[in-house]
Amino acid sequence: MKPMAWSRRDCLLGAASLGLGSWSNWARAGGQLEEPLADSVRGALSAAIANSAPPVPEFPDMDKRLAYLRWLGASSDRLQRRKTDFQTRIEFLQTVWYETRRAGLDTTMVLGLIQVESAFRKFAISRVGARGYMQIMPFWSRLIGDGDPSRLFNMQTNLRFGCVILRHYLDRERGDTFMALGRYNGSRGRAEYPNAVYAAAKNWTHPDA
Predict the structure, then answer these.
(1) pTM over 0.85
(2) Nearest CA-CA partner of 168 in 146, 151, 192, 144
(3) How far apart, in Å, are the Cα atoms of 167 and each of 45, 68, 144?
(4) Long-range contact set of residues 151-158: C-beta below 8 Å, sequence gap at least 24
(5) How far apart are CA 123 and CA 121, in angstroms?
(6) Which of 42, 17, 197, 8 has the alpha carbon at shortest distance from 105?
(7) pLDDT tens digits for range 143-166
C-alpha cells in the first residue's frame, strides 16, 4: 500500500472523528531530534528493536487474561470509528498492549500519544517526515534498525520503535513523563504536546488498562 501524506483536511477529519476538537486545538505531530548515542545505548536499543518475539500477550492466571479481554473489548469499541475492520483493530490493540508492556510503558498514555501523533493512521507522514502510528523519524532506522525507513510503516515495527524510543526518553528524563513526551515530539520543555497526550489518554482509560 502506498504511504499517504496528510492534508490539512485529513487531519481535521481525523481530529473531528475522535472528538479532538478544532484544528487549532489539535497537536500536530512533531519529530524526534537526532542526538548522539553512546555505543552501549545504541546497542541496547538495537537489541530491543531486533527481538522478533511475536506480539502475543501471555498471562500468569485467568484473572489477568479476563482483565485483558475486558480492556480489549472496550478499546475495540472506542476505536471502531477509526478502524472499521474488526481483525485489523484487534491486531493493532493486541500489539499496542504487548509492546507497551514489553517496554514498561503505560498503555493508556501510549494510545493517547498515537491519537495525537497520527490519529491512528498507519501510513501517516508528517511535514518533517515522521512516519506511521507513532510518527518515527527515519533516522532511527539508521541508528538502531536495519537502515530501511520503509519498514516504519509496518505496524509492529512502528509500535516497537515508538515504545523503545519513548522508554529511552523516559530513562533519560529519569521517569519524568512531561519531559519525555516533549523530547519524543521534539518540543522538550513546552507544555502543548504533553498536555495534548494527557488529554487524549483520557479517551482510553479503563479499569483493566
Answers:
(1) no
(2) 144
(3) 10, 22, 14
(4) 153/3, 153/122, 153/123, 155/91, 155/92, 155/95, 155/122, 156/55, 156/95, 156/99, 158/122, 158/131, 158/132, 158/133, 158/134
(5) 6
(6) 197
(7) 888 888 999 999 999 999 999 999
